[in-house]
């Protein structure tokens, strides 16, 4: 039959022309222990971070130091990566993904134990701007996973990093057990051998019912990175998800702590251990 009133629908163009043109023929995920990471790998990681992570926010120069000029790129040297992210004596991992032999993203994580449970904390996650929104962050976090990990943690101002962590570590952002974060984040952070995690202050109504700032599950880390990009991601996400972690304010980041779901394992057993 002929349709005498054909339906005409507008098909929106893809978000970015560059994204649609990019081919990803060869995608390789690799994982390394601290002592396997060479200086040249760290040099590449330093460049990836310094060119793609983000820029300093308006208050950074005042709060962090003069070097953190508003709008200038947040940088990390390879020496700092080695000393802070792959510290001797910590069980640290480095994972990276190359696309057609170019470094497209990487992540660092360190592990420590609390009440007999192994905590794996993602200390850095960055994906090259040309390769975003193609599942690489989820892939990197998946690559970090070890069978004996009990809990995963992450602090990030980027809602996409939280989404990726929820997905890679076995859940969905809409189903994360906030109760587990409320009851365990403080003790896990306090036991961390990493100073910025240990010293971060929990913020939001999850931890303080009288907090009316709009924060829910956040940490004050004093990291005044510019929030323009994370805030626009948050606005986009709120159109399709019931975002559970609250608002994003300057100097604070979201915190996500997820227990590995195993048979006969529960939040209760974590607390009792
Ligand atoms: C955060 C970051 C690592 C995400 O990397 P990515 O490879 O683009 O993430 P993925 O493609 O794996 O996407 C994960 C989820 O986030 C969503 N997402 C990614 N970027 C998004 C954006 N800008 N806005 C809305 N949603 C976004 C994806 O659609 C996906 O959701 P889905 O699984 O429901 O489809 C990347 O944007 C980045 O490097 N940002 C700058 C550095 C940073 O803030 N790092 C986090 C600090 S720990």
Overview in brief:
With 273 residues, this protein is α+β, with helices and mostly antiparallel strands.
Unreliable spans are: none
Radius of gyration: 20 Å
State the major sheet.
8 strands, mixed
What is the assigned CATH homologous superfamily?
Answer: Gcn5-related N-acetyltransferase (GNAT)
Protein name: N-acetyltransferase domain-containing protein
Descriptive report:
The protein has 273 residues and is an alpha+beta fold. It has a single domain, classed as Gcn5-related N-acetyltransferase (GNAT) (Aminopeptidase). It is built from ten helices and eight strands. The chain has an eight-stranded mixed β-sheet. Helix 2 crosses helix 4. The longest helix has 14 residues. The model has no long low-confidence stretch (mean pLDDT 91). Coenzyme A binds next to strand 4, helix 5, helix 6 and helix 9. This is N-acetyltransferase domain-containing protein. InterPro entries: Acyl_CoA_acyltransferase (IPR016181).
Which short descriptors sum up this protein?
273 residues; alpha+beta; Aminopeptidase; 8-stranded mixed sheet; 8 strands; globular; binds coenzyme A
List strands and helices in order, with pairings.
Blueprint lengths: L16 H5 L5 E7 L5 H14 L7 H4 L14 H8 L5 E9 L2 E13 L2 E11 L8 H9 L6 E6 L2 H10 L9 H13 L4 H5 L1 E3 L14 E3 L7 H11 L13 E8 L7 H6 L1
Parallel strand pairs: 4-5
Antiparallel strand pairs: 1-2, 2-3, 3-4, 5-8, 6-7, 7-8
């Amino acid at each position: 039959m002929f349709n005498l009133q054909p339906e005409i629908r507008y098909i929106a163009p893809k978000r970015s022309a560059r994204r649609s043109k990019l081919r990803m023929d060869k995608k390789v995920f690799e994982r390394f222990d601290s002592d396997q990471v060479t200086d040249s790998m760290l040099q590449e990681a330093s460049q990836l971070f310094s060119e793609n992570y983000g820029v300093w926010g308006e208050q950074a120069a005042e709060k962090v130091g003069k070097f953190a000029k508003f709008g200038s790129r947040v940088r990390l040297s390879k020496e700092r990566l080695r000393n802070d992210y792959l510290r001797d004596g910590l069980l640290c991992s480095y994972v990276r993904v190359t696309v057609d032999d170019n470094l497209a993203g990487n992540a660092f994580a360190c592990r420590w134990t609390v009440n007999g449970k192994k905590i794996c904390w993602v200390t850095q996650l960055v994906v090259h701007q040309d390769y975003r929104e193609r599942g690489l962050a989820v892939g990197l976090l998946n690559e970090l996973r070890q069978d004996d990990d009990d809990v995963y943690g992450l602090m990030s101002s980027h809602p996409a990093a939280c989404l990726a962590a929820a997905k890679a570590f076995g859940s969905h952002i809409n189903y994360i057990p906030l109760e587990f974060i409320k009851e365990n984040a403080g003790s896990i952070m306090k036991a961390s051998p990493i100073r910025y995690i240990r010293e971060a202050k929990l913020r939001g109504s999850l931890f303080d019912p009288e907090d009316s700032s709009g924060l829910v599950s956040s940490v004050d880390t004093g990291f005044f990175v510019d929030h323009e990009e994370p805030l626009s991601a948050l606005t986009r996400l709120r159109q399709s998800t019931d975002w559970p972690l609250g608002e994003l304010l300057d100097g604070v980041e979201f915190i996500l702590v997820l227990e590995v779901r195993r048979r006969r394992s529960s939040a209760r057993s974590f607390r009792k251990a």
